[in-house]
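Here is the promised in-class demo. Please do not try to memorize the tokens; focus on the logic of going from shape to residues.
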């Protein structure tokens, strides 16, 4: 039994709203030996074929900011450096405006076919149409939606973006600063309790969070 995320639902082709375009999907396969599961398969969306007029840019850190952060760790008494990885950070974020994708039905797992009765929705070209209701790889707006959700969630726990440095964050009262790059974080904090506070805050909006504190996994 595969745990679902309610990211998409099968629809009839005539249910695509008038004036909206349905793009295509493809499977991306990769082998990454450094991961706990080295063999990865992911369904991606050709978002470049869809029109999105909103802002799709997200702030991210650069190499100079990272170097300054590392120097700050070395020069701050009691400071330690922690790395954090948030799994599927840009995925599963609810979208106000849904997108539509056509998928080859023979690429759909049999378990999904049975559970969703997708056979009834197959078109003459052997595809099924799905409505994406949450962020997926390839959608232009996936990154900015996830970033906005992250900012809103972290702000409730006192973490805010710095005023002038893109991708740089700090806590209002705790000795915690970090730089973000997509789903990876480089964190400077004085005291493990403050590191745990950040991890707890991240887990409120991210599916899976792993961190390394002085070589020790959280």
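The designed amino acids, position by position:
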């Amino acid at each position: 039994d595969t745990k679902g995320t309610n990211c998409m639902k099968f629809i009839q082709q005539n249910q695509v709203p008038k004036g909206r375009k349905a793009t295509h999907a493809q499977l991306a396969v990769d082998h990454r030996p450094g991961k706990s599961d080295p063999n990865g398969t992911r369904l991606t969306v050709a978002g470049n074929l869809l029109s999105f007029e909103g802002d799709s840019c997200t702030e991210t850190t650069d190499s100079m900011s990272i170097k300054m952060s590392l120097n700050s760790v070395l020069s701050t008494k009691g400071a330690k450096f922690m790395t954090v990885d948030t799994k599927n950070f840009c995925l599963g974020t609810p979208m106000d405006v849904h997108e539509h994708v056509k998928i080859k039905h023979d690429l759909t797992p049999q378990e999904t076919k049975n559970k969703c009765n997708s056979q009834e929705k197959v078109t003459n070209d052997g595809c099924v149409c799905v409505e994406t209701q949450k962020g997926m790889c390839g959608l232009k707006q996936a990154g900015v939606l996830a970033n906005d959700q992250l900012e809103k969630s972290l702000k409730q726990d006192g973490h805010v973006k710095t005023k002038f440095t893109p991708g740089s964050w700090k806590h209002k009262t705790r000795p915690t600063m970090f730089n973000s790059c997509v789903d990876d974080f480089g964190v400077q904090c004085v005291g493990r309790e403050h590191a745990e506070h950040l991890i707890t805050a991240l887990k409120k909006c991210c599916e899976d969070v792993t961190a390394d504190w002085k070589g020790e996994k959280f």
